[in-house]
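# nightly structure sweep
# worker-07 picked up a monomer target from the shared queue
# config: single-sequence mode, recycle default, output format = structure tokens
# input follows
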Amino acid sequence: GGQKSTAHPRGFRTCSSLSPLLASPSLSPKKESNLFKMDQQAVNKQIKQMVEFIKQEANEKAHEILIKAEEEFNIEKLRLVEQEKVKVKSEYETKHKQIEIKRRIAFSNEVNANRLKVLTSRDEVLTSVKAVVANELGKIGEPSNAAYKDLMLKLTVQGLYQMMEPAVVVRVRQSDSSIANAIIKDAAAQYKSGTGKEVTITVDKEYLPKKDDTVNPCYGGVKLFTPDFMTAIDNSLNGRLDVVLAQKLPDIKIALFGRSATRRHID
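# output follows
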């Protein structure tokens, strides 16, 4: 009732029904060699594909890095260019401001220099005008001038009214001492008539400068002092000229130079 077993040449016993399954067909050496070659080619192909893939990945990565580096370079270059533009513009504006300041200073200096020249010229004109008037006063103040004695009397009386002192010292030029001694009585009388007060007038032993004095020439007139010489009234022709010039200087300037178009006030 069982299958018949067969003896293996080496003593193993196998079932005859399993022998077709257990017995593997054997390959010839030539077929084994071809199979090895096919497996090796497949491996090499896969390796080659992997290498190509890695190279492609590397190239793509390198390309990305190159693009990114170029973008960063362009951004940095643009930043530096803009920074230099701002720096150059700032330097230009600074130099432009410096040049403008120098130009304004130079213009202001030139205007001031021209204004000073104008003022100097005007002062020279005013000085010459004063010299002309002083020369005319010198003619009036000649002791030989008949009207000069009356002028001395009026200047003395006017000084007495300004002093309002009981005793007064009168100082005149040496050339006018005789005229002064001749008028002091009339001057005291006019003063008493006008004020009701007595006054004692004395001619000073010191004299005013001469007409031809090189430092401070006097063109005539009188100076009045209190006896202690603490108070003085200058009624010399020089003093009267200075007063008139100070009062009439604005009118004289307008007459000589015209009215300024920009000045609102006249000094």
